[in-house]
Write a sequence for this structure.
């Protein structure tokens, strides 16, 4: 099958969702409400073409004066003036009437200007009234004339059209969409009280692309950054990755835990440490990281709950010199505040971190904070966690997630309202157990995929300056018959009183 | 500066040059250009011709087209002086000051012409 001649937009992340780029000479319609980023997208399309891909370009503006356009572009580090001086781009100011007449003429002055610099790209900002917005038929035929004119010159054209109906989650079908080869929709969506930007490829002739609403940001000094939506289908290698090395285990770093986890966690496995706040999950996590450094393995900690300086201090109290480990290059700690977390952008950041740092161990503190930020009722959190698990499996990372279970004593479910336990390979439940006038700490390995599980609750303790360790289990324990208990059917057994036991034996 | 560059002698010339400085490559009809600059067509046409003679401006020559491509070329011998004037005129006060100079120069010229017409003995 012949491969299409794709041109790269050069916009970070956009070519990925376009599966490599856009077929040359496509007419691209970019629609969106005011302020959604159409002009920035169009200008970057021409800028990147001229500066990265040896494709000179023309920018046509109606309302914005070219000097303002250049000033705004400079905020992203795009020196349009320099490119214009070098004859790589031209910015033409005109009116819609003139442009309409121009493109109906075979010897168009505008297209002649384009030909002079060997332009391959053109961006026309604000074609709305140019193509006659009132009447659908007129609009379509106006757009047809425009795209024919551009096609004569084999230009890849990006035309920005204002569509007020695309504000928020509104929808619209513009008559021009049927003629355009590629339709890109930009939106600003309400997300609680925040606003997020999304980009959707509605159609694109001649190649494959990733459906759905992806996120994007407009970043000072950079330009557009598009983030693939986390729900987007995974690449095939991720599916295969889980089977790469099914036998190697990494030790947890907590004395006594290795023995009750059959030697440690498998590569590519997902472990959740669930328990109420203060039970020692972060301590165990830090020991897991420090153990990695001891074994010469790179470890990454992603924290949403505590800032890096706090984590360093806390690690110091259990004898872990985290700054030193970080300095050694084996440990990296990242903090991101959970409020207004943008899931696609956040996942992209994690993907980059894992790809660049190549950790063997990842600690995420905590899953429940993601739940609070993304909400557990919709698909947002579930899709994000799915994507995270797949990413870690692809990279054969042992991932440990701290998860705050709100129940102080006992647990009615393993992960509370987070109905995700089927995705998790190992679950460690940590509980306070009230004995006499003291809370003591219990740890139960509740689930270990591919391993025998005893489901015995072990006592643990955290010692200042040393961290957590699992206390040895004192055996043999006398197994008493069921007849020595009451409340078996209700699953809350209690020992009978001794005299009651004696009576029942008579 | 104005005396040195010689191409800005009237308010219309200043405003046309300012417009072209902000829109260095403009594809417009004469009528649209005049409307955008804010003067009548004759004044703008005259100023445009002056700039073309001074090689400050290029205009597309395809007369089949109603519109023309106007291309400002600030790279001649007065580039620095012109740029300085245009930067100064980019602020409101700067433009007002330059217009004042131009208008006073204009009235001096008018007086001079009047005096010449009335003869050397005319007073006032």
């Amino acid at each position: 099958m012949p491969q299409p001649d794709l041109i790269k937009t050069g916009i970070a992340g956009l070519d990925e969702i376009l599966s490599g780029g856009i077929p040359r000479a496509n007419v691209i319609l970019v629609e969106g409400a005011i302020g959604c980023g159409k002009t920035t997208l169009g200008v970057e399309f021409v800028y990147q073409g001229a500066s990265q891909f040896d494709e000179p370009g023309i920018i046509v503006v109606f309302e914005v004066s070219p000097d303002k356009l250049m000033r705004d572009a400079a905020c992203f580090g795009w020196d349009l003036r320099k490119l214009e001086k070098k004859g790589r781009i031209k910015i033409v100011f005109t009116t819609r009437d003139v442009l309409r007449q121009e493109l109906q003429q075979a010897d168009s002055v505008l297209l002649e200007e384009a030909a002079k610099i060997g332009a391959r790209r053109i961006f026309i900002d604000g074609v709305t009234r140019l193509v006659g917005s009132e009447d659908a038929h007129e609009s379509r035929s106006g757009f047809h004339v425009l795209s024919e004119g551009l096609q004569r010159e084999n230009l890849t054209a990006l035309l920005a059209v204002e569509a007020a109906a695309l504000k928020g989650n509104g929808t619209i079908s513009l008559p021009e969409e049927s003629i355009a080869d590629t339709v890109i929709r930009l939106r600003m969506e309400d997300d609680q009280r925040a606003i997020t930007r999304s980009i959707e490829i509605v159609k694109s002739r001649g190649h494959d692309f990733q459906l759905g609403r992806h996120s994007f940001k407009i970043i000072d000094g950079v330009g557009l950054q598009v983030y693939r939506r986390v729900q987007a289908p995974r690449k095939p290698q991720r599916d295969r990755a889980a089977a790469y090395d099914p036998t190697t285990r990494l030790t947890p770093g907590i004395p006594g835990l290795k023995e009750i986890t059959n030697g440690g966690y498998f590569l590519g496995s997902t472990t959740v440490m669930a328990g109420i706040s203060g039970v020692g999950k972060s301590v165990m996590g830090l020991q897991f990281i420090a153990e990695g450094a001891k074994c010469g393995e790179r470890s990454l900690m992603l924290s949403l709950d505590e800032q890096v300086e706090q984590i360093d201090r806390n690690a110091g109290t259990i004898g872990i010199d985290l700054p030193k480990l970080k300095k050694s290059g084996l440990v990296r700690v990242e903090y991101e505040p959970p409020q207004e977390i943008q899931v696609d952008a956040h996942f992209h950041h994690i993907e980059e971190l894992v790809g660049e740092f190549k950790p063997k161990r990842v600690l995420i503190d905590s899953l429940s904070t993601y739940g609070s930020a993304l909400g557990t009722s919709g698909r947002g959190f579930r899709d994000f966690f799915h994507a995270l698990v797949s990413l870690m499996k692809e990279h054969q990372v042992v991932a440990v997630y701290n998860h705050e279970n709100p129940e102080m004593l006992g647990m009615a479910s393993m992960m509370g309202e987070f109905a995700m336990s089927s995705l998790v390979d190992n679950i460690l439940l940590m509980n306070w157990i009230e004995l006499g006038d003291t809370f003591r700490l219990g740890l139960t390995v509740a689930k270990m995929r591919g391993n025998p599980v005893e489901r015995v609750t072990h006592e643990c303790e955290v010692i200042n300056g040393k961290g957590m360790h699992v206390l040895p289990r004192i055996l043999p324990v006398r197994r008493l018959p069921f007849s020595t208990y009451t409340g078996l059917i209700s699953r809350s057994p209690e020992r009978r009183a001794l005299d009651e036991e004696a009576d029942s034996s008579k | 500066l104005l005396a040195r560059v010689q191409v800005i002698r009237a308010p219309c010339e200043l405003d046309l040059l300012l417009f072209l400085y902000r829109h260095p490559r403009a594809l417009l009809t004469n009528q649209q250009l005049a409307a955008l600059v804010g003067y009548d067509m004759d004044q703008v046409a005259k100023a445009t011709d002056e700039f073309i003679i001074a090689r400050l401006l290029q205009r597309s020559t395809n007369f089949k087209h109603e519109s023309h491509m106007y291309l400002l070329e600030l790279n001649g011998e007065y580039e620095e002086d012109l740029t300085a004037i245009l930067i100064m005129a980019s602020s409101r006060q700067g433009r007002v000051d330059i217009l004042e100079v131009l208008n006073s120069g204009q009235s001096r010229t008018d007086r001079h012409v009047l005096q010449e017409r009335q003869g050397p003995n005319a007073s006032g």
Observations:
- Chain A has 16 helices and 24 strands.
- Chain A touches chain B at residues 65-68, 90-95, 97-99, 101-102, 105, 107, 109-110, 113 (CB under 8 Å).
